[in-house]
Amino acid sequence: MTHIGRSFFLARKDVVGIVVLAILLVVVLPLTLDSFRLQFVGKYLTYAFVALGLVLCWGYAGILSLGQGVFFGLGGYCMAMYLKLEASSVENTKIQSTPGIPDFMDWNQITELPFFWKPFHSFPLTLVAIVAVPALFAFIIGFAMFKRRVGGVYFAIITQAIAAVLTILIVGQQGYTGGINGITDLRTLHGWDIRTDAAKTVLYFVCVALLFACILLAYYVKSSKLGRILVAMRDKEDRVRFSGYDVANFKVFVFCLAAALSAIGGAMFTLQVGFMSPSFVGIVPSIEMVIYCAVGGRLSILGAVYGTLLVNWAKTSFSESFPELWLLGLGGLFIAVVLAFPNGLAGIWQTYVAPRLGFLSGTKPTDPGAAPVAAE
Amino acid sequence: MFSDYSLTELGSIFVMQGFAGLILFSVFLLMALGLAIIFGQMGVINMAHGEFMILGAYVTYFTSQFFLNYLPSLFGIYFFIAMILAFIASGALGMAVEWLMIRHLYKRPLDTLLATWGLSLILQQVYRSVFGPREVGVELPGWMMGSLNLTDAIEVQINGLFVMGLTIAITIAVALLMYRSSWGKQVRAVVQNRTMAGAVGINTERVDRLTFGLGCGIAGVAGSAFTMIGSTGPTAGQLYIVDTFLVVVFGGAQSLIGTIASAFTISQAQSTMEFFLSGSMAKVLTLLGVIIILMLRPQGLFVIKVRR
Amino acid sequence: MSSNDDFPKKFSSTRRTFIQGMSLLPAASLLGTTSLFPRMALADTPPTAQVNTTGLAVTDSEVTVGILHSVTGTMAISETGSVQAEKLAIDQINASGGVLGRKIKFIQEDGASDWPTFAEKAKKLLVNDKCASVFGCWTSASRKAVLPVFEQYNGMLYYPTFYEGLEQSKNVIYTGQEATQQIIAGLNWVNKTKGAKTFYLLGSDYIWPRTSNKIARKHIENFMEGTSVVGEEYFPLGHTQFNSVINKIKLKKPDVIYAIIVGGSNVAFYKQLKAAGIDLSKQTLLTISVTEDEIDGIGGENIAGAYSCMKYFQSLDNPNNKEFVAAFKKMWGEKTVIGDVTQAAYLGPWLWKMAVEKAGSFDIDKIAEASPGIEFTKAPEGYVKIHPNHHLWSRTRVGMAQTDGQFKVVFETPDLIEPNPFPKGYQ
């Protein structure tokens, strides 16, 4: 998992950081946690994809989307549709009035597979759809809005409304989508039973591998010219525009990229948890995902992963011991991160810890995003 | 669907349906007014707006219990007192929140969104721990229940009329306060240029605090009024938040007229579609319509200048 | 609240008085249940190795079970009553000597009104805590989310809510009604006694109201004489504006409004109905989604006169129920009300205890096998029996809502209704 050999776009401290995270996720956690807890970590990591996308889109480009759950959900639904079709073979569903279609369709008197389900019989098409459908959707939203220079607060509220609409739509069209229950009872992927503990462990490592691929991609984007333009845009949009760049295109691109990353997370979520439901598409999960990113540090790619793990770990252990206190804790965390630690864990690390560790502070931040939180 | 009915029946239904649309309009406007002040004038995104409303609803509930137990003879007028108390309670909480939290964030509007979302989680849990997880039913005085019979077939809800009257009164009061009083001038001055406003001797901090408190107080009154038509529970505030923001954004955030126009458009669209379609589809289509119009015309219906 | 350790702390006074009270309760209420199985005397404690062959959390003196409901989030409103009922039942069972001589210890987890959290917590209860059974879930969505977990790790879930049917599992005992048990008798009653011919179906937009209305529509159109559906409509969960549909109802003038609206929407719907001048003493309204719990939020004066179709009402006049209501109020306060689901949740621990004692083992497979045929004669609703399909035989009752928030029972099926989760002719 070490990529020191081709670290042309990575600073030394980034390489160290990635290696440390890799050791943690690939060696330490699997060895110290039983498979039950490891599955939880696998689930949390799927949210880290979303947080990663948010670092690029919110931290670097200044676009706060409160609808990332939409893309997470779309990716997850694409995967779930494929798995559901596989689970609904004619033999498995022969007690239905129409065998061969998902059970919830049968309950809703649908007698034929709807056209938009048909492509999901094919695994390659599904893999394409997982990334393409959310990215396309993000493109439509982003193109319409950024070309008209909608930004900041307005963009946040409109994406939030989109999340609300999509939830109502999925819940309302239960014959086609499984309604509020979501798509449940998923069993096999290409004949491979995904419910066993062994399969869950394999999926965990697949998830980790994909996450590192996405992390490297994020570093690449950040270090490229595109990344520097994004930061410039966030801080002084007009100046970038006057320099001859089409600001909107960059924004659309990074928004689509964040959507695609979220969708990969969603698909991995479906595989590991075994179902997908509209409760991920809504407003609440979308905002929670923003907090993962904020806790980790909105400018830190690795911070997003740590933030996600930390918040979710706290959520699980808190809610096991003090369910009533958990919401107070989460709410307090939101406020504390915003008021006291706007750069999250990464900020704390850079200010208090890193200076004491010589080998890391050797390369002092030339990081273009390391400026304090942007004024909107 | 209309062939089976007589003309008088249809006529009275359309009158009543128009009235239903007006009630919905009043509800939307009442929800949005407080937010229009906070978001439109101060640029703060208050995600805890719904929770301020629910605080008003709980205050109403406790006032009604108090009157039932101690002053049953005055029960008929308790609602007016409850609304005043709701305004005070929510307004005071709002000013406290502004002092503790919001004033540090005026330069970072997106962060106010996160912080107030955190606040809304905390408030929900506090309501649940203090008032219990179950919903409470607010009993209304007899005269506010039932309907007026205008003709044999046309019936008009009294509490609907009450909400409409209240909305009109509050809207006029807000308009006067914003555009006719010296305090309103100060608020608008601070919005347009904080530094200059400070330089000419306006106490900007005080103006901010009072503006935020006023917005929250109006939310409290709205919550109080909504006990007549909706539920009161720890999480009921969340039901309103998306609608409220859309009304404000659709109207063009800084314009009071815009908020009124947008509440009117959205409510009429929704109420008409609800009559011809199922409630669920009507909601989806209304929201979609609003989103599409916002994509085409991001600045909203009425606008002074909205760009980051 | 990870275990019941802090339970006595929190409720120590109520609990102590409660246990004292229990000892004063007619001994029959406790002996009645145990005397069904005379071989299992109270002191009889078979060795653990013999009654627990699959590694569940059973020791010589204790058995651990799970309680899995939402205590936070939007569903906490509804699920609170179920948690209270389950704790009451566990307390009573412990006071009467436990299960196979073992005290029940419970671990409570919060589903947080979020389906994936339910799945996560179910897995924890089964894999980590090795719970011998789990009492929990409320919404269909949460049950669907945990069902694969229970089937994979072979756990046992007692599910209390009336629901849409179309499901049957070895690993679930459904202590609430499936849809036909709640719908058909009510429709027949309203057709016969009110002469109702036209129905307007309303519902919140999710699976339970839609499936229930589908069954209602089939019954109205195919199984009753001269009856028809004049409208059918759904609203998003949390919808609070019903004036438009109320106008439509006024236009169509149905004999019966058949409403399956849930949660906060319920409150808005009945308040607006009342405000619009629809007098429920003249306009028949039949619902299957309003229990005493919901009326607490709606306000009795807003819904008085509506008919609700359930299997249990707090006002049921039988000795079992009188004891149950008294014990419940003693433990949770005079003001708490008891709805249909609360009662069904109360059945869970008792039915599990009886199944364990009948099987002579805590093993899930043996309990699943032993469950059919178990009769609970001390059920507050009267008498229930587990069907081979793991649902309960129960009566259907119709109650008329009163201004004080209680129901007056106006109809009760003479016989127990057979549970039929996959009804022929209704799909």
TrEMBL record, chain A:
Keywords assigned by UniProt? Cell membrane, Membrane, Transmembrane, Transmembrane helix
Q: Which Pfam families match?
A: BPD_transp_2 (PF02653)
Membrane-topology descriptor: Multi-pass membrane protein
* Compartments in which it is found: Cell membrane
Residue ranges of the TM segments: 15-33, 45-67, 123-146, 153-172, 202-221, 242-269, 289-313, 325-349
The record's annotation in PANTHER family points to: HIGH-AFFINITY BRANCHED-CHAIN AMINO ACID TRANSPORT SYSTEM PERMEASE, SLR1201 PROTEIN
Protein name listed in UniProt:
Urea ABC transporter permease subunit UrtC
Source organism? Ancylobacter crimeensis
Instruction: Give the lineage.
Output: Bacteria, Pseudomonadati, Pseudomonadota, Alphaproteobacteria, Hyphomicrobiales
Q: Point out the gene that encodes the protein.
A: urtC
TrEMBL record, chain B:
Localization in the cell: Cell membrane
What protein name does the entry list? Urea ABC transporter permease subunit UrtB
User: What taxonomic ancestry is recorded?
Assistant: Bacteria, Pseudomonadati, Pseudomonadota, Alphaproteobacteria, Hyphomicrobiales
- The reply to whether Iron figures as a keyword in the UniProt entry is no
User: How does this protein sit in the membrane?
Assistant: Multi-pass membrane protein
Task: Report the family membership.
Answer: Belongs to the binding-protein-dependent transport system permease family. LivHM subfamily.
Entry keywords, A to Z? Amino-acid transport, Cell membrane, Membrane, Transmembrane, Transmembrane helix, Transport
Q: Which NCBIfam families match?
A: urea_trans_UrtB
Transmembrane stretches in the record are 12-40, 52-71, 77-97, 158-179, 212-233, 239-263, 275-296
| InterPro entries to which the protein is assigned, alphabetical | ABC_transp_permease (IPR001851), ABC_UrtB_bac (IPR017779), BCAA_transport_permease (IPR052157)
From TrEMBL, chain C:
Name of this chain's protein: Urea ABC transporter substrate-binding protein
**A Pfam family reported for this protein in Swiss-Prot or TrEMBL:** Peripla_BP_5
| Matching InterPro entries | ABC_urea-bd_UrtA, Peripla_BP_I, TAT_signal
The protein's matches in CDD domains, at most eight in alphabetical order, are given as: PBP1_FmdD-like (cd06355)
- Please name the SUPFAM superfamilies in this protein's record: Periplasmic binding protein-like I
Coiled coil regions in record: none
Naturally occurring in which organism (per UniProt):
Ancylobacter crimeensis
Q: Which PANTHER family match?
A: ALIPHATIC AMIDASE EXPRESSION-REGULATING PROTEIN, PTHR47628
